[in-house]
Batch of 3 targets.
Target 1
Amino acid sequence: MASTRRWSDLTSGQQAAVAGAAAVEVALTSLALVDLARRPAAQVRGPKALWVLACFVQPVGPIAYLTLGRTP
């Protein structure tokens, strides 16, 4: 059986990496959701409700919306 690692078991570098990755995910998700809320439906490829759900699939959803879901 695999042992579970706790936050305190990580080195300070590993903790910083996890915190940095989490900050990037939160920023990307926030950016995608704000853009989706402000952008007219005519400028979104596909249903907006589906993109909202996709934005919570980390980290692929926000990146997919920001690169593929918007029209110029």
Target 2
Amino acid sequence: MSRRSVVRALSAILAALALSAVVSSALVQARATAHAAAATVNVTAKEFHFTLSKKSAAHGKVTFKITNKGALKHDFKINGAKSKMILPHHSASLTVTFKKAGKYAYMCTVPGHAAAGMKGSFKVT
């Protein structure tokens, strides 16, 4: 094989590697964007129940965006993390990191609210 043939072959290999790196980077970015979208759960609080936009998410960081559409103040507690107290017609966010799959209980910690129905289970895969 001549020196010129070797240079052409190496150039082709380097070009293929560069293309592979670009495609791989684009796929990683697309997955991260899809994961970020999947990691947001909208929560509506109202007397005396929660409505979640999703009943499950992949393990990792999940942001719960809680909107209080009720007439009383509420909060949202899950996996040991708790939102601030949310006044009627206000919102708050709570980001929780789930390290493993399983079912996680959520609830409103205002006395009597969980007993009245403001509780449930969230599945992490």
Target 3
Amino acid sequence: MNKCFIFAHYDSNNLIKPYIIDEINLLNELGDVLFISDCEYIININELPHVKYLQIARHFLYDAHSYMCGFNYLKYAKLLDFYDNITFVNSSILFPICEKDLFIKTINEFDYDSSDVYGMCKSAYMIQSYWITCKKNTYISVNKFFDNYIPATKENVYDWYNTIKDKTLINKYNRWYVSRIKEVGEETALKWIYTVIHFEEGFSRYLYNNKFKLTALDYCCWPKSRFITKYPRESGSNT
């Protein structure tokens, strides 16, 4: 099976941390890696293991844009048909927290099961966006989603916020929103909520509504996962 991992990276200090190096090495054992970094530059870029494609460019548009950049690279390079599945994974998680062999075995089992899309963690219909694997039969729909996705630019986010009628969408995330305002300011906090609603929830909702079967290694959120945990979020982080 041919697999591709689109790895969305961000680091407020423009570094590739040791755990990222370990993760890229593991993913290289499983398939090809596209490394998309939302940094202006990376100080220790020489420490990055071999990857099939490398992009370093500050875009301020969260993982959704990095994932789209990687997917578009495959599309325009006419490589989509080569891969049996494509995994979107970001640098906010530490994996595996179980034995490496168990992690690989479980991933391989999900590659061949009846699902169309699987993730690390899932609640209701939503797969957490730090790890989403899409199988080949979904690529046309994934492409349509990215083509129609409105990026989280300042202008787009404020236009959306000022016109949205259902403010309960904002209130749903109020506790985290207030916390992020204190850390990074209103604009970045609002961009985070926009991305959660339109990409993290929106992508799963879109796939679900298109009748794809969504499964996960764990039916829970990351604190209770057997396979991954979260890397402590740094002040000023956009992930």
